[in-house]
Amino acid sequence: MRENICEDFQETVREYLIRHQSILDIISKSQETNAYISRALTKAITQCGCIELNSKKINLPESSTISDIKDAYNSQLKGNLCSTCSEIIEQELGKNLFYIVALCNALELDLEDILLKENKKVKALGRFNCT
After folding, report:
1. pLDDT tens-digit profile of 92-130?
2. Which of 1, 8, 66, 83 is the most exposed place for a label (fewest CB within 10 A)?
3. What superfamily would CATH give domain 10-130?
4. What is the pTM of this model?
């Protein structure tokens, strides 16, 4: 196994992706895996109940600090994923990553380069990047 997990995973996807090699297939499979992630998270909330969602409009005073804002949004999710829900969501995220990497391969893009650029951008823009 290579020391670089991004490069190793990208090569693995390149080697083992047999079906769904067209751009349209890859995009539609990526969207499908996004839907499965949403469904698994919804089931963790509504069927299993290991986590609870308390989502509502958050009214923050003008004087709110970044810490206040983060705390307000962090308070919307309560509990922790149980091992079953965690495993299912991890599997769905893995499938999603597979198709993201397949798209990188189809477009001859390097996943590690993309991650490095995005990380650099987030660090440079800080909290302003994620608004």
Report:
1. 999 999 999 999 999 999 999 999 999 998 888 876 655
2. 1
3. MazG-like (1.10.287.1080)
4. 0.82
